[in-house]
Amino acid sequence: MFDDSTALVAFRERAVDGTQDVHFSIWENNRWSEARVLVPEGWIPDLTPTAAPALDARDGRAAAAWFTGADHDPRVELSLSSDAGHVWQIPLRLSEGRPEAAVAVALLRDGAVLAVWQEGTQLLLRRVSPQNDRGPVTPVGESRTPFDLPQLTVLADHDNTAPVRVALAYHADGNAMATVLTLPPLTELAKGDSVCACGQATAQLRRGFELHGTIVSLNAVEGKAVAKIEAMPGVMPAKTMAFRAEAANLKSLTAGQKFLGRMEEREAEWWLFDVRLLAEPAVRR
After folding, report:
1. Which CATH superfamily is domain 207-283 in?
2. Residue 21 predicted with pLDDT over 60
């Protein structure tokens, strides 16, 4: 549920051909939107039903994490949305071993994400920064049987310099279990990020204007990109315009690629930064 009374759900739905992709639907204008595929995987599980995806929402942002065995490659993946679930990024792989199906996810105040899953007997935690940096995988518990119905709840992250406290609850071997995870402060967690935002407020982290666009052309030598951007109400109409950008923000882009980013005017030029690739939602089959 978001502050404006819209809501978001994510689930697996079985198609006629047996595939079970992750779908999502948004409650707005007093109705649920048509369910759409978040990321087409084409996974046909050996067992039905499969574990549901984990979902969290905060300040207009959303995070979805799930287990998939698509392509005979068991893994846990994470996708993020900055517009209440309307558009999702290309997923990041979280797991490094052979994970179990149950996953939990939570959003932190600074835009980072925490995710927990099981590999073998260990419960593992990983943080993903606002810049999509994947932190180390850290054991946070143990369960000798598959754990079920996991939930992560942020208890305290309001102070940048105080420890972050998160509750992890789940069922294992027929018993309800709960533990409180104490993590370093937000400023400490952010020290290894690509662009450390240590000591800055959330509003300062998100400088410039957020935009959705499609790359028209690139000139990596000159550090420039031309993009067709969608309208930004109260800021700028839809248009095609040129941007300056650092090499790190250009290397993952190609002409025709849809992206999410931010733009800022610097010395009479528009700069593009915080570029993230987007996955196009597919129409339900």
Report:
1. Copper binding periplasmic protein CusF (2.40.50.320)
2. yes
CB-based contacts of 13: which residues, under 8 Å, 6+ apart?
20, 21, 23, 35, 284
What's residue 127's pLDDT? 96
The pTM assigned to this predicted structure is 0.70
Cα–Cα distance measured from residue 38 to residue 79, given in angstroms and rounded to the nearest whole number? 9
Q: What is the pLDDT of residue 201?
A: 37
Over residues 196-205, the pLDDT tens digits come to 444 343 333 3
Q: What is the domain partition of the chain in residue ranges?
A: 7-199, 207-283
Instruction: For 90-128, give one letter per residue: b (16+ CB within 10 A) or e.
Output: bbbebbeeebbbbbbbbbbbbbbbbbbbbbeeebbbbbb
Amino acid, res. 64: A
Q: Cis (ω within 30 of 0) for the bond into 49?
A: yes
